[in-house]
Amino acid sequence: MADVNRGDRPLSPHLSIYRPQMTSMSSILTRITGNALIISVMLVVWWLLAAATSSAYFDWVNGILTSWFGDVVLTLSALGIWFHFLAGLRHLYFDAGHGLDIETAEKLGWGMIIGSVVLTAITVLVV
């Protein structure tokens, strides 16, 4: 018979006892950055379409993308690109059957985060 008293049992895994793991967080961040890059690509396409439309419209769009807001968005886009790139390399490494133990997977997750921040800083300084 079905359990009628479902309201007294906690959900599994319950949020109060669940500890986020690096492997799950890096996977979630990979999905978030992948979707955020769609918005970044749309901004660049908007900029290119404005360049093809008229100089007044291009000046307006270029003013937005070169403002402090545009700088923040494009810097975060660079961070997302680097993170997503490193996640792809990690995925290829996993597909080859390497690094599948928990300790190595966690190190690779931290490497993705630290590597993407360092590569973004280099990108911002060079560009």
SSE inventory with pairings:
Blueprint: H1 22-53, H2 55-65, H3 68-95, H4 102-126
Helix pairs in contact: 1-2, 1-3, 1-4, 3-4
Number of helices: 4
In the predicted model, the low-confidence regions spanning at least 5 consecutive residues are none
Structural class: mainly alpha
What's the alpha carbon Rg, rounded to whole Å? 21 Å
Domains, number: 1
**Hey, roughly how much beta strand do the residues contain?**
under 5%
> Which homologous superfamily in CATH is the superfamily?
Fumarate reductase/succinate dehydrogenase, transmembrane subunit
Q: Oligomeric state of the chains? A: single chain
Please give the share of residues in helix: over 70%
**Total number of beta strands:** 0
CATH class: Mainly Alpha
In the CATH classification, which architecture applies? Up-down Bundle
Mean pLDDT: 90
Biggest sheet statistics: none
Distance between the termini: 66 Å
CATH topology: 3 helical TM bundles of succinate and fumarate reductases
Order of helices and strands: HHHH
Structural shape: extended
Task: Pick out its properties.
127 residues; 3 helical TM bundles of succinate and fumarate reductases; 4 helices
What can you tell me about this protein's structure?
This protein is mainly alpha-helical. It has a single domain, classed as Up-down Bundle (3 helical TM bundles of succinate and fumarate reductases), CATH 1.20.1300. Helix content is 76%, strand content 0%. It contains four helices and no strands. It has helices spanning 22-53, 55-65, 68-95, 102-126. The longest helix has 32 residues, at 22-53. It is extended, with a radius of gyration of 21 Å. The termini are far apart. The mean pLDDT is 90.
